[in-house]
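Design job #97: recover the sequence.
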């Protein structure tokens, strides 16, 4: 059977992407090809790094050309509550990842969802993930104001093989993904782009435990134990008390007891106050 014009056009678009692999506009051109077939509203290419802030490869511009303050807040700390980031760090795997697969059971009740996701992503999100090693995963995220349909997800899954292949071939030209500095090798040379990202606010927030300890110390509050810190992070990420118990392999009542002690130590009375303390500078100062 002879290929129709749509087949010919598709092959042409793939060819242009291969030609763009070593160019600065690769990510933009990749998203333009995908959006010929699927509607989405924003995108970003990142390197997720366990216990470190993500590194930005490229991002969709704001309509008015201004800085996306919500995305800056994400890079400065809220990424620690991102279900995609958590999943990539805990269970790295290559391929298409959907929000439905990774979102905790109480995700839509969290302050992270209400104050960041709903405002910035708005409706739904999928990612193409390419693990680079045990700590790093190269991802491209596609966010939409609407919820992706079953057909949309099926199309994304159909595109995954060639998207992943192109991401893999892009690696030699992507200084952020290839930088050995992201692996903690202080003696390795660092690209200018990677150095700039390292200097960005929040880039030296090594992990959530360090963040929580620093906030408690600065505000004169009683320090949390390692287990209490883990309960806080999972709770703020959207895991219910029962889900936290299952993940940490402790009893439901033990998790409730941890939460009671956490609130008492930090002088807070709600999840929103807990979120503000650790992830909103104004909430921290006013506490």
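Job complete. Output follows.
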């Amino acid at each position: 059977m002879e290929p129709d014009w749509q087949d010919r056009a598709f092959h042409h678009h793939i060819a242009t992407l291969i030609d763009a692999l070593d160019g600065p506009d690769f990510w933009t051109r990749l998203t333009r090809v995908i959006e010929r077939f699927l509607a989405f509203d924003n995108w970003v290419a990142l390197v997720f790094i366990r216990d470190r802030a993500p590194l930005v490869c490229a991002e969709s511009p704001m309509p008015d050309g201004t800085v996306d303050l919500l995305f800056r807040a994400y890079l400065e700390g809220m990424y620690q509550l991102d279900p995609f980031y958590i999943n990539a760090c805990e269970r790295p795997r290559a391929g298409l990842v959907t929000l439905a697969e990774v979102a905790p059971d109480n995700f839509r009740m969290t302050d992270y969802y209400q104050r960041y996701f709903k405002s910035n992503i708005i409706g739904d999100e999928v990612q193409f993930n390419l693990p680079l090693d045990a700590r790093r995963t190269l991802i491209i995220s596609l966010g939409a104001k609407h919820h992706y349909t079953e057909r949309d997800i099926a199309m994304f899954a159909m595109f995954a093989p060639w998207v992943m292949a192109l991401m893999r071939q892009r690696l030699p030209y992507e200084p952020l993904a290839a930088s050995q500095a992201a692996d903690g090798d202080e003696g390795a040379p660092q690209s200018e782009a990677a150095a700039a990202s390292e200097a960005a606010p929040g880039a030296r927030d090594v992990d959530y435990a360090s963040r929580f300890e620093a906030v408690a110390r600065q505000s004169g509050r009683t320090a949390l134990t390692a287990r209490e810190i883990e309960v806080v992070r999972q709770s703020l990420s959207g895991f219910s008390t029962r889900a936290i118990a299952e993940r940490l392999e402790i009893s439901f009542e033990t998790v409730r007891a941890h939460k009671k002690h956490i609130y008492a130590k930090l002088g807070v009375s709600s999840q929103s106050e807990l979120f503000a303390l650790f992830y909103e500078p104004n909430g921290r100062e006013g506490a």
